[in-house]
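Dear Dr. H.,

I hope your travels went smoothly. While you were away I took the liberty of generating a structure for the chain from your last submission, since the lab meeting agenda had it listed for discussion. I wanted you to have the full record in hand beforehand rather than looking at slides cold. The sequence, exactly as received, is reproduced here:
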Amino acid sequence: MAYKRKDSGLRMDIEFPYHKEESNIFKEVKRPKIEIQIFSPKKNRWIWLDEVLADTGADFCVLPRFMGNILVEDISEGKYIEIKGVIPGVRLIAYLHILKVRIGEKEIVTPVALADSDDVPCIFGRVKALDLFDVSFVKGEKTRIIY
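The corresponding predicted structure, in token form, is as follows:
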């Protein structure tokens, strides 16, 4: 997924085009997916994630178990939490970890829920994540993040 960076003096502007996906309801739907990097304490390096849903309805970031296993030694060492709403009618068990995340050149430290399931999408939520940026969803075509 390509993105553009514009340096406007003291601020950085990054744009991500929406990602087209098949839909049973609309035939095709565009979703606001972005690229991020997460630092893996386990591998001692940054890991790229290129299809992360920018979700203003999510309180925090969520990643599936297989990603958690890449990032940390043992996902269950995080704080046990149960999340409602990601999988309808089901409580998702996850473990909250504090991880370093990058969008463009901006690095933040944020809570990330590492799910005990692979059946969840990668989500970049609001608290200590999207709320730290000026985010615009531009006419269903692109996500603009300014910092």
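Two observations you may find useful: The longest helix spans residues 65-71. The domain at 33-146 is CATH 2.40.70.10 (Cathepsin D, subunit A; domain 1).

With kind regards,
E. W.
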